[in-house]
Design a protein that fits this description.
single chain, mainly alpha
Length: about 150
Amino acid sequence: MFQLTPARDTGAASVSMTAFRYVLFAVISTIVNFMAQHMVIVALPMAPLVLSILFGTAAGFAVKYVLDKKWVFEDDYTTGRSEMRKVSLYALFSVGTTVIFWAFEITAWVIWQTDFAKYTGGALGLAIGYCAKYALDKRYTFRTESA
């Protein structure tokens, strides 16, 4: 009889489904990030580049946290204190990986000064950052706590 494997199982099927979801949610979060950046640029064309990047990053962060918590790490709500710890760690690790994202995005924009270069650099930076972030979140943020 066929049985679905929980995400916490280390079987190959489970690992590949978790990886697929993580990548899918990274793509969704990246799209949300870039859409938010574009909306800021359209709404406020004279605003500095940093403003659009900040708005995009915040939107991408919120979407990615909710999707990762529920569908990648299958993490349920426990207590307010535990949730604050998780959000704090997730945010802390996000800051570090966001620096990678911003460095790639801004560097590409400074070198080529085109939207295509900026978004390509951003996508590359996000991909690298998400790989590092997954490892950190799996080990520290959404770890199963011992009783």
